[in-house]
Design brief:
globular, alpha/beta, 337 residues, four-stranded parallel beta sheet
């Protein structure tokens, strides 16, 4: 099962107000997005792929109303208030931060909680009241969110107390070293999190599509940050080849990231010529210092060949590249006016 999530935060702001929206008036924006995507998405098997579009709450009624019969699109909201309504209890007297029950009543079937906006907002309010205890923010925001099927992204500025919360709740973490470096936001305390027993996986945050590249950078940024040239080797290789497998097992039925009977047959063949001995005892060294993603010549996903001898199977690569180029030109022309 694939899950395609489209987070439409702030894309509704018109260009004349500093945004990027050139496709529809603000009152018709949610309706336009749904109507111009759902029909083309119907060709995909709903048992194999899920599409969720996350809208700012002002656009949710129009987006839900635009759903056609049998639409594959699900409508999501961008976060819900930390407390929900309850019979005989909280009535949900909120305005901009809607309770989950209100979102459900509007037709929302998914929600997303991203980045640090809400955390920073609550910390700022508490600071104005003279409260500097970061744990107070944790108590406000972590209730019911963390758990063994929750994965946190980045975690650059987590402190030891927060690491303990992550570990105790069984929550997982995904480190994205190149993205963090590119945005100059700091280096995640990966070594400390792993030492505490937290499952830390390796990702890219779309900064690159080459996991070997991410692996190399994960190693050198941790060594650079620690000012020690002899750390992180085992940790970063475990993140990619062991912990990513553990994380995937939380969300997928078939075993991933391992070659054994019953597992998904995900295999790559690398065009790699080694000039030193090569074995299971030093393959990680060859991957970090010798291999790059571009050396991949054959790819199999779940037993299906997608590329053989660097030729894509079932895809007209030149036609696809031409369509992509045309679409990107149109996008940039809209963004740049």
């Amino acid at each position: 099962m694939k899950h395609i999530f489209l987070n439409l935060k702030r894309f509704d702001v018109p260009v004349e107000l500093g945004g990027v929206n050139r496709i529809a008036p603000i009152s018709a924006w949610g309706d336009y997005i749904v109507k111009h995507t759902q029909e083309k998405l119907k060709k995909y098997d709903p048992n194999e792929v899920e599409f969720v579009q996350y809208f700012p709450e002002a656009h949710i009624p129009a987006a839900v109303a635009a759903l056609s019969e049998g639409s594959p699109v699900k409508i999501g909201c961008q976060g819900v208030y930390r407390m929900n309504t309850a019979k005989g209890g909280n009535f949900g007297a909120f305005t901009t931060s809607r309770p989950a029950s209100a979102m459900k009543a509007m037709g929302v079937t998914a929600t997303i909680i991203g980045h640090c906006e809400e955390r920073n907002d609550k910390a700022g309010i508490l600071a104005e009241a003279g409260v500097c205890d970061s744990a107070a923010v944790n108590r406000l925001l972590n209730n019911g969110i963390l758990g063994p099927k929750t994965m946190l992204g980045h975690c650059i500025h987590v402190n030891p107390a927060e690491m303990d919360i992550i570990r105790e709740t069984g929550t997982m973490v995904c480190n994205n070293p190149e993205s963090n470096m590119g945005n100059a936001v700091g280096c995640a305390p990966v070594l400390q999190m792993i030492k505490k027993g937290i499952t830390v996986g390796l990702g890219t945050d779309s900064y690159t599509f080459d996991m070997l590249e991410s692996l190399k950078v994960a190693l050198i940024i941790q060594r650079h940050n620690a000012c020690m040239p002899n750390v992180a080797w085992c940790e970063v290789t475990d993140m990619l080849f062991k912990n990513n497998r553990k994380i995937a097992a939380k969300y997928f039925d078939a075993p991933l990231g391992i070659l054994k009977p019953g597992a998904a047959a995900d295999v790559i063949v690398m065009d790699y010529k080694c000039f030193t001995p090569f074995s299971d005892a030093n393959i990680d060294g060859h991957m970090i210092f010798g291999m790059t993603g571009r050396q991949c010549e054959t790819t199999m996903c779940n037993g299906k060949l997608l590329m053989k001898d660097r030729q894509l199977i079932g895809i007209d690569e030149e036609a696809m590249n031409a369509r992509t180029m045309e679409a990107s030109k149109k996008l940039w022309s809209r963004l740049n006016g």
